[in-house]
TrEMBL record:
This is NADH-quinone oxidoreductase subunit H. It catalyses: a quinone + NADH + 5 H(+)(in) = a quinol + NAD(+) + 4 H(+)(out). The keyword Amino-acid biosynthesis does not apply. Its EC number is 7.1.1.-. NDH-1 shuttles electrons from NADH, via FMN and iron-sulfur (Fe-S) centers, to quinones in the respiratory chain. The immediate electron acceptor for the enzyme in this species is believed to be ubiquinone. Couples the redox reaction to proton translocation (for every two electrons transferred, four hydrogen ions are translocated across the cytoplasmic membrane), and thus conserves the redox energy in a proton gradient. This subunit may bind ubiquinone. It is found in: Cell membrane; Membrane. It comes from Hymenobacter armeniacus. It is a multi-pass membrane protein. Coiled coil: none annotated. It comes from the Bacteria. NDH-1 is composed of 14 different subunits. Subunits NuoA, H, J, K, L, M, N constitute the membrane sector of the complex. The chain crosses the membrane at residues 6-29, 77-99, 119-141, 162-181, 193-214, 251-275, 295-318, 330-358.
Length: 359
């Protein structure tokens, strides 16, 4: 007895959520290890071998800490804020194509939770909702520093979503679709890297990754938290697992942003010479075409996660290398530099497409 197609896709969705949570959990460990390496000191080394159980110890600590509600806080919204931030972060990972497909007999399993033809629009919509979790939590805390952090988060996200959306338009002009799966498959021609969008949209990628730092509130764009000015920003009054939900949501957003950049600009699950390798497995090793394709799909899955982990490392490297912007510098960069550059990139892309330089 086999599961229907809907059942398999349901398992893929659950696996996607589970992987997102697992990666977010161990991002906390990676953050500490990378920070220790860059600062020439010893990182976590007590909980388990090489400190690998440190995230589990942190989780136990967060679950067992005392629940705290500030005086005058709106209790319902105080709990709802971090929950909304976490749910929206998880939902945004559902449409990312982590691999092509696996075929077992007549059963075909697409390694993507949900395939919709407006996948990129879905990601943008869900990410836009995530800021409401920050706004609600900051307002419900009845703390002026939390409220200031929430207002900063809202204005920052609105400002940088414009430039990010304009950078995306250039990719859509070339692909003609909002489906993340279709954008990935269009970059699979001959499996070579120079067919990836990074070779056609280097300026768009730079704009996109800068905006991704701002959207995920990572240094040097972590003005909503900014402990030197706002104590801890929008989660100043939070403790226990409610605080943990905000922290996990941030790391899941970093994971999703890394996955989206890998899909849009670095070929997603494609890798060089994938078709030559598939044909070699069939001709030289005598494998069936379906088996060879399954192997290529698994290698593509591994390759995509290697790209994602590379971007996550870059996020962490920048955090422990660059200083934080002032708020006026943050807004000036978004409105007077990135948005005009993104508009210029759209016009340049349109011209190159018109004259047949890129397709």
């Amino acid at each position: 007895m086999t599961l229907p197609a809907l059942g398999w896709q349901g398992l893929v969705v659950l696996a996607t959520f589970g992987i997102s949570l697992l990666i977010a959990t161990y991002c906390t460990y990676a953050e500490r290890v990378i920070a220790a390496f860059l600062q020439d000191r010893v990182g976590p080394d007590r909980a388990g071998p090489f400190g690998l159980l440190q995230p589990l110890a942190d989780a136990v600590k967060l679950f067992t800490k005392e629940e705290f509600f500030p005086a005058g806080a709106n209790r319902a919204l105080f709990v709802f804020g971090p929950c909304l931030a976490m749910v929206t972060a998880l939902m945004s990972s559902a449409v990312i194509p982590f691999g092509n497909f696996l075929q077992f007999g007549d059963t075909i399993i697409h390694l993507q939770g949900i395939e919709i033809n407006v996948g990129m629009l879905y990601v943008f919509g869900i990410v836009s909702l995530g800021v409401y979790g920050i706004m609600i939590g900051g307002w419900a805390s009845n703390n002026k520093f939390s409220l200031l952090g929430a207002i900063r988060a809202a204005s920052q996200n609105i400002s940088y979503e414009i430039a990010m959306g304009l950078a995306l338009i250039a990719v859509l002009m070339m692909s003609g679709t909002l489906s993340l799966r279709e954008i990935t498959l269009q970059q699979s021609v001959a499996g070579e890297w120079h067919f990836w969008n990074i070779a056609k949209q280097p300026l768009g990628f730079i704009i996109f990754i800068v905006c991704a730092f701002a959207e995920t509130n990572r240094t040097p764009f972590d003005l909503p938290e900014c402990e030197t000015e706002l104590i801890g920003g929008y989660h100043t009054e939070y403790s226990s697992m409610k605080m943990g939900l905000y922290l996990f949501a941030e790391y899941i957003n970093v994971f999703v942003a890394s996955a989206v950049m890998s899909v849009l600009y670095f070929g997603g699950f494609n890798f060089p010479f994938q078709y030559e390798l598939r044909d070699w497995l069939v001709s030289s090793r005598g494998l069936e075409l379906v088996t060879a394709q399954n192997i290529i799909t698994i290698l593509g899955l591994v390759g995509l996660f290697a790209k994602i982990f590379g971007f996550i490392f870059f996020f962490m490297w920048v955090r422990w290398t660059l200083p934080r912007f002032r708020y006026d510098q943050l807004m000036r960069l978004g409105w007077t530099i990135l948005i005009p550059l993104a508009i210029f990139n759209i016009m340049l892309t349109g011209g190159l497409i018109t004259f047949g330089v890129i397709k």
